[in-house]
Write a structure and sequence with these properties.
Length: 937
């Protein structure tokens, strides 16, 4: 009878209830689906609405949070029940329940109501696990090590380059640490909270835990280190278990030998702290912590340097060292060493191995000098000669490591040099990437052996393998045989959220070129390059961030970058150009406002893109202190220090700004900073601060125009692309002069035969100004070519990742993300997915769809995962018809700008419609969420 009644009830429901079923999906806490190590007292909760209908807006929500899954299944929020809240907020909803407990797991779900009288079912349950919130939560865990670095041998801050000769050579023992743990009861959940410096790799019962690489992320170790929560529930078994930890150096200790190093220094020898929390099914909890009961011994890794490479002697392996039953009687007890001032959970995604490549070609170079050929300074100097050398070309320049498979005699050593480029002699060329960087593997002679480096990486396309032969090659010296060699790309595991393609093949190749440089420079910081420096230069994070966010979800990596800046900020308020600030470069390489202003611009962009207001409040003190510092450096409200438009195109070799006068870029950014912070101050209910910064901004604008603007020519400074574009973008130009300055920008480009001259700082603003002014045709003309320095030029020279210089010079990095600004235009201009620069656009709540069909481009498509869901466009020119498919996520709305004549006939999803307006050659239509097929004839 109940089934029959239900059937009748279903028949009576309106069809649209089924056609427009409302669902809640993609629940996230602190930007992750099931995060561990959450330390926020009130975590951010977000979810997405899904519906096949149109114009869906959330009107209410209810959140339940429980401390056990059974309670949640009964719709009981014993930790927090928000009740029904009348609100359209579906992102950045702050948890407001009972105080959260360290190491505890919480379960949550959501239901929503919309503006069309739909009510969703409860979402699928999600969860988050808290981190260790206080020192007491570590339950007495101690930092332990194999050895202690004497205080006299500490070198902090690190020294730029090799340091004084009196330092001498230095290497350290890379330790193994082990502990046996007995499990006597059924396990409900087990979590290891662990930090190993510089980096660690953990295993349980002989199996590596997780798939992370180079954990934890690097930080300013004089003040802070990160720990990583790892789920080991499935690895533990009843009875005896063994926990094994290997430690590497990273930036924590940089060995001193003949190999390359950008920095010289030592915070200490490798060390580790951990707490294993085991929850049993009977409700009890047990902890195992790091202390002197752990045993330690040297590992087979005999050398590892973040800059120089890694060596491994397979003959030093101790079989079963990380398994139960191993006899560790010969091992010594770990010693207790000093800790780190602040220990925080790693919030950024870890590094992992992604794409793998096999060699496109293998070339026998014959016997010869090891590594990169160089003419000896002294003709009597003997150079090390290898009996065999093979060059492997993997076809793609990337950040990564390799997997080596080899057979050989016990004690034979295989050496591998990675490189981006080749020298004229056909050998590897590490001149622009740090020379020498290599890996030595000592064979144990036990059949096929497999090895890959654990604690360093490099940027490379080629590998030069020495003292070994390729399969099938003559082997008169009985050298080891390389049975397999793969290139393994490593990067930050930020989720991919975007796609782009178009009918212009050069633009597609440019997209791939830039994407590889982005991937290769997303580590635990936004690095400049994956080899020579690996440092977090800050300007690229805000300048190229607009490109990166369309393709990758970098919310957590950005938050880590913001934290790095907070830690690096000096007592007088300076935010240095690199964070973490491992070394003090001094002068213009430490204090450049275009770099330090990332401390203001990046939190603002994170708020705009992801809707995260909390990051503004957390960063506000840093912003204020930096503005105070800049005000103290300004002379008559003009800033003149720094690097300027770094690596612009001028008559000299690239470096310091050549085309734009000193002070223009720094002062323009300063003005931008003041405007941003004044807006933030009002959002945070600090009206006095807002008024102060607004007043100073007016004074800076006046001073800037008095010093740099020529009223007769309507030019700023020398009239460079950068000078004029930055003045327009930051609204430094008086309204009456704006169009004249834009006209001068276009004229300057045309006068240079559509060639670019702007550099690292200015090029993004040049593209933004041209796009905003409706001159994407100029952007097309500048970039749809390969005959002058630029993206096409780099591709024509064989680059497979974006290079440091527009000219693809071989003496500098050939995997650099700092010039990748056009990626933003591919999405916002060519494909037309644009974020309105106003409060309605925050988090893409409102969206502008404004495709720019320019040049010979006849079609383009792109999509990106916004906080509210997928936004996509796909347009095509077909005869006299313009076709556009658009997807707008639920709880968002959009304004569509169709690039058609005012007389064009419009249709939407097969029905004739009228535009709501027409301006600047575009018909305007307002749409809500849903999918739309638009045609204009």
């Amino acid at each position: 009878m109940k089934i029959k009644k239900l059937y009748i009830w279903l028949l009576l429901l309106p069809v649209q209830v089924f056609a427009q079923a409302l669902k809640v999906a993609n629940l996230q806490c602190e930007y992750k689906a099931a995060p561990q190590g959450v330390e926020a007292a009130s975590p951010n909760l977000s979810w997405q609405l899904q519906s096949t209908g149109h114009n869906i807006i959330q009107t209410s929500y209810r959140v339940l949070v429980a401390d056990n899954i059974q309670a949640l299944a009964k719709n009981t929020g014993n930790v927090w029940d928000s009740k029904k809240v009348s609100s359209s907020a579906s992102i950045q909803v702050l948890y407001s329940g009972k105080p959260l407990q360290a190491a505890k797991t919480y379960y949550w779900k959501v239901m929503v109501w919309d503006n069309q009288q739909h009510t969703s079912a409860w979402s699928k349950p999600a969860e988050w696990q808290m981190g260790l919130l206080t020192k007491a939560d570590w339950k007495g865990a101690q930092w332990i090590a194999y050895d202690r670095l004497p205080d006299s041998s500490h070198i902090t801050p690190l020294i730029h380059l090799r340091g004084p000769k009196k330092l001498g050579l230095a290497n350290d023992v890379l330790p193994l640490l082990r502990k046996t743990v007995t499990i006597k009861k059924p396990v409900k959940k087990a979590t290891m909270y662990i930090s190993g410096l510089g980096h660690f790799e953990m295993s349980v019962n002989g199996t590596k835990t997780g798939d992370h690489f180079l954990d934890p992320g690097w930080t300013g170790y004089d003040k802070q280190a990160l720990y990583v929560p790892l789920d080991v529930t499935k690895q533990l078994k009843q009875g005896e278990n063994a926990i094994g930890v290997m430690l590497g150096n990273g930036f924590f200790f940089i060995p001193r030998d003949v190999r390359y190093r950008k920095l010289t220094g030592a915070y200490g020898y490798p060390k580790m702290i951990c707490r294993l929390v085991t929850e049993y099914t009977d409700g009890t909890t047990e902890s195992v912590v790091s202390d002197p009961t752990w045993k330690t011994a040297p590992s087979p890794i005999t050398y590892t340097s973040i800059y120089g490479g890694e060596d491994y002697n397979a003959n030093l392996e101790q079989a079963g060292w990380n398994k139960p039953g191993f006899n560790d009687a010969a091992w010594k007890k770990a010693i207790v060493v000093d800790g780190i001032l602040q220990l925080d959970a790693q919030i950024a995604e870890p590094l992992k191995v992604f794409e793998q490549f096999t060699a496109k070609s293998i070339k026998n170079l014959g016997a010869g000098v090891t590594g990169q050929y160089s003419k000896p300074k002294d003709s009597t100097m003997k150079q090390k000669v290898m009996r065999s050398r093979y060059l492997y070309d993997f076809g793609q320049n990337l950040s990564g490591i390799f997997e080596l498979k080899v057979k050989g005699k016990k004690g034979d050593t295989v050496r591998i040099y990675p490189a981006e480029l080749l020298a004229a002699e056909g050998t590897i060329n590490q001149k622009g990437s740090g020379n020498p960087h290599y890996y030595d593997y000592v064979v144990k002679g036990d059949g096929e052996e497999v090895w890959q480096p654990r604690f360093t990486y490099y940027g490379f396309r080629y590998m030069q393998v020495e003292n070994a032969v390729a399969p099938g090659e003559a082997n008169p010296h009985k050298l080891p045989v390389v049975t397999g060699l793969k290139s393994l790309h490593t990067r930050n595991a930020a989720p991919i959220v975007g796609e782009f393609s178009c009918s212009n093949e050069l633009f597609n190749k440019t997209f791939a070129l830039i994407d590889w440089s982005i991937k290769s420079n997303m580590a635990s910081v936004f690095t400049d390059c994956p080899h020579r420096e690996k440092l977090g230069w800050l300007e690229e994070a805000h300048l190229v961030g607009g490109s990166i966010r369309y393709i990758y979800d970098i919310a957590n990596l950005s938050r880590k970058c913001i934290n790095d800046m907070q830690v690096a900020q000096t007592a007088d308020g300076l935010v240095p150009e690199i964070a973490p600030e491992f070394t003090n470069f001094g002068g213009i390489f430490r204090d450049s406002p275009e770099w330090g202003s990332n401390s203001i611009i990046m939190p603002w962009y994170v708020y705009q893109w992801y809707g995260d207001k909390k990051v503004l409040a957390d960063s506000y003190s840093m912003m204020q202190r930096y503005l105070t510092y800049l005000a103290g450096m300004a002379k008559e409200n003009i800033l003149s220090q720094g690097l300027g438009d770094w690596y612009d195109l001028g008559p000299k070799s690239p470096g310091l700004s050549q085309n734009t006068p000193q002070g223009i870029t720094a002062t323009a950014i300063y003005y931008y900073d003041l405007n941003i912070v004044s807006q933030i101050a009002r959002m945070l209910d600090k009206p006095a601060d807002a008024a102060k910064y607004e007043k100073l901004a007016i004074e800076v604008r006046k001073a800037f125009n008095q010093k740099f603007f020529n009223q007769q020519t309507k030019q700023y400074g020398t009239g460079s692309q950068t000078a004029n574009a930055m003045a327009v973008y930051f609204d430094l130009v008086e309204a009456k002069d704006k169009q004249a300055v834009i006209a001068n920008i276009v004229k300057e480009i045309k006068d240079h035969n559509n060639a670019l001259t702007a550099g690292d700082i200015g090029y993004r603003y040049l593209l933004r100004v041209l796009d905003d002014a409706g001159r994407s045709d100029v952007i097309f003309d500048m970039n749809n070519r390969s005959d002058v320095p630029g993206y096409g030029y780099q591709l024509a020279k064989g680059a497979t990742a974006l290079t440091e210089s527009w000219q693809a010079l071989p003496g500098v990095s050939n995997n650099h993300l700092m010039l990748g600004h056009i990626m933003e235009w591919f999405y916002s201009g060519l494909a037309g997915i644009k974020q309105p620069d106003n409060v309605n656009g925050v988090g893409f709540r409102s969206i502008d769809i404004r495709p720019e069909p320019v040049g010979d481009v006849t079609s383009a498509q792109a999509k990106t995962q916004s906080p509210y869901g997928i936004i996509s466009t796909k347009w095509k020119k077909k005869g006299g018809t313009f076709l556009l498919d658009v997807e707008i996520p639920a709880n968002s709305r959009a304004t569509v700008y169709l690039p058609v004549a005012q007389t064009a006939k419009l249709s939407m999803n097969g029905k004739a419609v009228q535009a709501t307006g027409y301006e600047n050659g575009k018909a305007i239509m307002k749409v809500g969420s849903g999918t739309y097929h638009l045609e204009a004839k």
